[in-house]
# Entry
Amino acid sequence: MSLSLGRRIVDYRKKAGISQKELAEMVGIKPSSLSYYERGKREPNVLILIGLAKALKITGDALLGVEPQPDLIAQNRDEAAILRVFRSMNRLGQQKTLEYTSDLSEIPKYSNNAGAGEYATK
# Structure
């Protein structure tokens, strides 16, 4: 069973060692408003959700309880290393990387989709 938004706010706040008053100040809301959100009496708007996530140093997805998509998660150390390098690049570097990897994937020697030819890797 998935936790409510209010419960996730409480859990992440406590994990961060932050009081309700401190978190409310960080987000720019009244402590009473944060209390309402944590108890599920009200729903925060998008701007407050963003502020909460930033203050708690978590992603919006984590705060909302959204499960990551499996294809967006690195499956091994090599993929994780590639993702770290890719994410450290600016947009131009990322575009070039995509071009290069697309070109490489079309070469049978480097493709898992290679037929039974001499370069097939299984």
In short: The mean pLDDT is 87. Helices lie at 5-16, 20-27, 31-38, 46-56, 60-64, 77-88, 91-105. The chain has seven helices and no strands. Residues 98 and 119 are 23 Å apart (CA to CA).
